[in-house]
Every structure is written in C-alpha cells, then in structure tokens.
Amino acid sequence: MSATLFNEFRTRLAVKNSDNISTSYKQITKCLNGHYWDSDSDILHCRQVGSYGRHTAIDGVSDLDMLFELPWSVYERFNAYESNGQSSLLGEIKKKLKDRYPTTDITADGQVVVIKYAKYRVELVPVFTNADGTYTYPNTNSGGSWESCDPISEIRAVNKLNDEKNKCLKRLCKMTRAWKNEHGVSMSGYLIDTLCYNFLNSTNDHDKATYSTYKTLVKDFFSYLVSLSTTQESWKAPGSGEAVQKSGNFHSKAKRALLRCTEALDLTDEKKAAKKWKSVFGRKFPLPVTIAMEAIAKDSARSYRDTEQFIDDFYPVDIRYKVEISYDIENQGSAMRALLNRIDLGFKVPKSRKLDFQIIDINVPSPYMIQWKVRNVGGVAEERDMIRGQIINDTGNKKIRETSTFEGEHFVECYVIKDGVCVARDSVEVPI
C-alpha cells in the first residue's frame, strides 16, 4: 500500500499553475528580447533556474528565479558609468518592463528585478554569458560590483545524480519541501536541494529506490539531517560549489520527523502507518481509500459541526522565514512554568485558566500579516458542538488570549502572510 500512497503523494506535489508561470516567463522574455535583441521571441535568452529550473519545486512555489542573457555591449555601456552602473542597469530593465506592463508591481533591488503576480513573483537576474558557461551579473550593493554565478552547473549536477539514483533525488527534494511547509521549517529550497543531493551522493543504499521503499528513504534522510552539526552554517551547492547558507535551525523539527517516520515503519497496521506519514508531510499526503470512505461516513453521521479551516486553502504556502510562538498561563507559579515544557511527561493545562499565546521570535521582513488558528478536539468539544479551527486575523499585538474551558487536545497555530503567501508558521500543543 505504501508504494501507491507515495506515488499519489508525488502527483499531488506537482506544480498546478505551471501554465500561468510559463506565460509569465514568456511575457517577460518577449518584452526584453524586443528591446535588447531586436527579436520577438518569447523563449530565447531566458533561463529558468532555482528550484523551478531544477524541477524540485512543488505546488505553491512563490519565488521563481529567471536569468535573462544580455549582449556584452550592454555590459560595456553600464560598466562605463562612474558609479553603480549596476543599479542603473536594473533600473533600465525595470522601466522597460513597467512601460510594457504598467499595472504590474515591479521593483529593483540588490541583484534582481522583481515582478510580482497574484500568487508568485519572478526574480529576474540580468546576466552576461562568459566563455566558460558561467554568468556575470550586477550587484547594486556597496556601491555596485559585477559578480559571477554558475546555476547551469547546479542543474546539470542535480540531473545527473537524479538519473543515477533512479529519479528519487528530485522526488526527495519535493517531499522535503512538503515537510518544511507543513511544519514551518526555516529552510530555503536551495539548502533542501543541496542537502538531499549530499545525502544521496554519500550512500548507495537508495540507488534503486522505488515508491515501495520511499518510506525507508525519507527516514534515512531525516536521520542524516539530525546527524549534521548544529554549528554548521553553510554547505557547497552541487555543481557550482556556491555557498548555501542556513537560515534557521532545522534539527529539532527533523528529530520529530525522524521519530514519526520510525513509528510509521514499526506499525503493522497500514491505516495507522498512513496517518503517521501524513503527520510528517501534511495534507498533501494521501490516506488509503478505506480511511477516506470512513471519514466521509463519519462526517455524515456526526452531530457536531467541524469548522476547521486550513491555511493552504487561502494562500500558497512556501515557508522561507521563521516564526516561533509560546504561551503563558495566567497566575502560573514557577512549578507550572517548568511543566509547560514537559508535555511529553503527561502534563496538562488545568481548566479555567487564561492562556496568552504570543510570538517570541520572527525574522520575516515587514510588512506582513499575522493570522491564528485555535483547534480543539475531543469528546467534550463534540458534545458541546464547539469544535473549532477557524483562521482569524491578529489584532495587531502579535498575541491572542484563550481560556482552557474543557478537557481535550488543543493546538494553536500562527501564520505569517507576506505578499499573499504564507512564508512562516509555527504551532504549539495544549493538552487540557
């Protein structure tokens, strides 16, 4: 059964709006080709790079990377500027695109021109092709400079190892993204692809991996993540050797994923195992048809309303930043404060207490919007027809107050929305 579920999981992770993305790439390309190459082509001189170019992106991808190759005569023109010709180059490209698409939100900063669409944005890097196949690109920071990059070597390295590992490298990258988005892990797609590559390149255990063995593949990968030093801050990208920086600590959430994978592998009941895999990868991971049918029957027979909402029904989820939440109990003593961190020992929050949930750490650049979800389940909630799970807006204080009214399992989740995309999330369990 696991082979069928992981195969379906791969299908569900596929990018659903690829036609719209392709149209955006072509519109940008045609506009710039008309100005810089006297051509009406919508495909020449454009290179798709990043996760979308490596074919490791999943549905909901919000940052799309694009290179546009310019003639060297353009480099010579802007390199002759007395100061920061790089900024002037980005400004010129921004103006050409803005003249063609006046209602589109277009900005220029750093190394990119950003073209914002409803559910994603294209980060365009103007480049000049070097004789060795690498690229020279403008960097407007610190007065301006010309830098080099080699994304095509990265794509070739990923493709080569993916072929050698029975196509499982890119699929592992996609499954890892699903875990990252579900559990709010602050990891870039660049880092995910690099670590997946390093893992498979370091072992022959999964050279012939198939859907039926993916459960062992992902367990071994999380074990690999846990084994990495917590002090390591960067890794070398495959192919180019470019430094790939760590944006946050992924070890604690990788440990929880490893535990759930191990538990799933130990289960003989396939239904329970599937639910455990779903707890690792989220809503995209399918359940067996028998469980789905049972859920439909339960929905039709229940006497209470389940009003739970899901963030990915409202926004694309593409976790790129960190948010961390915690909570305090009104009038808590030092003993209770210590027990808050020992839920694993069976500690439960007493009833009729005021609970203050707040953000204690966030690195999302402003502006952004915060939303919350309070989910309560259990027999008492069902009897009172008080199953909750609606997503609500933050009032501006980065906190919410709740009351531990009745017994049951609860959790509170926080979402950070930026440019129409959920870019950070965190949750805490609250057994009452």
Question: What can you tell me about this protein's structure?
Answer:
The protein is of the alpha+beta class. It has 3 domains: 18-149, Beta Polymerase, domain 2; 163-264; 302-431, Immunoglobulin-like (Sandwich), CATH 2.60.40. It has 14 helices and 16 strands. The chain has helices at residues 2-13, 18-36, 50-54, 72-79, 85-100, 151-164, 168-183, 189-201, 214-227, 251-266, 270-281, 289-301, 334-339, 379-383, and strands spanning 46-49, 63-69, 105-109, 112-116, 121-129, 135-139, 145-149, 234-236, 243-245, 323-329, 354-362, 369-377, 391-393, 399-403, 409-418, 421-431. The strands form 4 sheets. Strands 1, 2, 3, 4, 5, 6 and 7 form a 7-stranded mixed sheet that branches. It has a 4-stranded antiparallel sheet with strand order 13-12-15-16. A 3-stranded antiparallel sheet has the order 10-11-14, with no helix packed on it. α10 (251-266) runs antiparallel to α11 (270-281). The radius of gyration is 24 Å and the shape is globular. The model has no long low-confidence stretch (mean pLDDT 89).
Task: Offer a quick outline of the entry.
The chain has 14 helices and 16 strands. By secondary structure, the chain is α+β, with helices and mostly antiparallel strands. Helix 2 crosses helix 5, helix 9 packs antiparallel against helix 10 and helix 10 runs antiparallel to helix 11.
